[in-house]
Amino acid sequence: MEGAAARIRRLCESGRIAEALSTVRSPPTIPVYAELLRGCASHRLLALGRALHAQILSSSSSSSSSSNSSSSSVFLANHILNMYCKCQRLDLAQQLFDEMPHRNLVSWTALLTGLAHANRRHDCRRLFTAMLRTHIPNEYAVSAAIAASAGDGDRLFVSQAHALACKTGLSACVAVGNALVAAYSEDEAWSVFVAMPQRNSITWNSIISGAEGRQALSLFAMMLREGVPCDCCTLIVVASSCSAAVQCHAVQAVATKTGLISEAKVATALLKACSLIGGEPEELYELFSEARSRDLVSWTSIIAAVAGDDGGSQSRKPGHHQAAMLFAGLRREGLSPDRYTFSAMAKACASSSADRHPSALHGLAMRSGLAGDIVLGNSLVHAYARCGSVGSAEKLFGEMPARDLVSWNTMIKAYSLHGRGQAALKAFAAMDVAPDSATFVGLLSACSHSGLVEDGKAVFDTMAGEHGVEPELDHYACMVDVLGRAGRLVEAEELVERMPMEPDAVVWSGLLGACRKYGDLTMAERAAQRLVAVAPERSAGYVIISSMYSEQGSFAEAAPYWKGMKELGVKKVAGLSWIEIGNRVHEFAVGGHRHPEIKAIMAELRLLLVKVKAIGYDPETRLVLHEIEQGQKEEQLYWHSEKLALVYGLMNASPSQDSIRIMKNIRICVDCHRFIKLVTKCMNKEVIVRDSNRFHHFKDGFCSCNDFW
Ligand code: ZN
Ligand code: ZN
User: 20 to 30 A Cα–Cα from 463, which one of 54, 438, 580, 684?
Assistant: First the structure.
């Protein structure tokens, strides 16, 4: 008996609910149901959870109503409630809650916490007020209510809840104190913090993250003196406050002593801090190589740190090469990489442009007996997609024996990157787990990248109602893109105006880009002003609006923007392109002067220019600054980094090679896009360009983006 229960629990904990259910001799007992529901909640298995709910309902109606069943039915209902909350189906949770004949403190608290986590602040506060009529709240209910008031700054509610907590003695609870510290701004947060009888690492993390620089570091020292154990979050925040090498090393020492250095996030934060203060990340490698005990965990974390984030950073060279060296190093030391090492390597592969890396890694993982591992499978799907091979990503995804939410989100994002909007929608329709916020970001950007306006609108409109995911800033930004790219500028601007939150720079630059594409100077002017207001340091606002004026010949109106940009010292992000030849990554900047073979590359490019001009290439000179003479404008365009990388790729390509893969740190420009299309008309190789935003597959004179990016 013991063994069976333990087995069910183990299966539930690892998310294998269906398997667990199949081992149960029917009908399941109440504790077994509770275990199954808890498993569904923590793995967000909505479909199974709902099936269990239905099964419980039917079995309770068939069994004659016994007198003492009400307490056990509240117990199970609370588990179902919690499952719906965790699966982000607040609508179902609310419905169940409303229908429950009996509710206890746990029921109220479960729904309150669910609402607070889902950012349904207003509903959360309303429920809390209703709860007070019948129940004295516990510390979790109070902290949920406080957290729900922190985000939108309902000061009055926070102080009322604070007063209530003081009256009921709950203010002495750490959870309540923590919620108050997070909700209040500086001075009040500090006085709550000082008065707290007990503080844990969450308390310290929240007070430290509200502090800056030196202050954060001295608070960190106090925390250590009080003997409160620091965690990853503490170290990450503190690392970002370091402004000198000594501080970095001190934090690194704590991280090593506590063993938290082996957490990839901590190692990454330290690496970042090191490089921000001018120290080389190599310093940390050195520290690492001097470390006494180098085990698999520390090797893995340093690989993960080197792999970095493959999406955002605009000037970082792909870290795959260094990661591969480390990977070889650990294998030389006789260690066998595990699923985490492989996942970290997969992440590193995603930062390269060559799909032979993920495929080699994939092969090695299979031989190590890791086929079928979900976490690794997800990382490999991601890596294949980021290397331009959406087909291999799709194949692996199809072969995975089990998939979780991350798998689906990764696949949808992969389709989005490659402009395969219909495929993304199809995958979404086939999902057997509840979608979350990230699913919708992937889906909406897929619609935007494929020009699927109506589908995008339908997705956006049903997010909250059908799927219980409230649209956030990211979703609005995607939706503005969907409308803007399709030329529906008025609708896009209306959407921005009615957003419930403050539009950020991403939203405004999306709208501005659309205005440029469709030549709406009046709206562009409005968007540019708002963009410059929210993000004066970003160059896009100044550059786009002044070039729009310049293109029209209105130099007088463009002038203030150029001036503003100069005065603020705003710099355009320099375009960089990378191409991998053999085992080396070659980096190209505009002009390519740093490349040793630049003379040969330029000669080759001139020959290619003659060829493509013969089939209709006409340099897009209106994009270049107006101060430059026509001839010079053309020259400037010719030496764009992606053209140089392409030529270098062609020079080194073998006849049997069917594609050339290039990575670029910013978006590809209109001229290079047109140029590459024509180049692929003259030869039978595919050119795959990954820019900061998406993939372009050029073939036979066409691009997979349909000139829509
Ligand atoms: Zn270009
Ligand atoms: Zn394209």
Answer: 54
